């Protein structure tokens, strides 16, 4: 039987620290802190529920991050 792959660790980061930031500034900070994927979504976007290790999601309204979560 093949071993179960171990995903790389995620950055030790608090998603709440991005709320209120300009979206471009937040994305730059997230990448500098080690997030491999950063995506900005408008409020109410329909997205799939799969969890992706290393991804940080921003809900962006009027150019500012209003919500942030991992996966």
UniProtKB/TrEMBL annotation:
What InterPro entries does the annotation carry? Prot_inh_I78
Q: What is this protein called?
A: I78 family peptidase inhibitor
Phylogenetic lineage: Bacteria, Bacillati, Actinomycetota, Actinomycetes, Kitasatosporales
